[in-house]
Specification:
The protein is 0% helix and 34% strand. It starts with a strand and ends in a 19-residue tail after the last strand. By secondary structure, it is mainly beta.
Amino acid sequence: NNLLQTDPFIPTAPRVVGPVHTVSGSPEIGAVLRVRAFGSSPLRYQWKRDGVLIPEATNRFLRVTGPVQADARFTVEVRNDLGMSESPATNVTPPGTPILSPHPLRPGLLT
């Protein structure tokens, strides 16, 4: 479930819970991003790429379409009448971009 319930009788500002996550697969073109947030209804969503609003990207989910620069940063603002909360950024890479991670046996080596 992507929406956390609050007491319906106590108005609350929105709050993003954790970072933006991919629904499936790795964070690259074609991936679907989602946000987990709670607060008083109605919640309104606005996705951004590299700090710029993405027109018509106003749902809890966002399908990443190209082209994107390497390490494009996606965030989402969640608003209601009581306030706004913004997610931490998630990097999205074009398909085929090597993703470096620490080698499991040799900490100073990237694979």
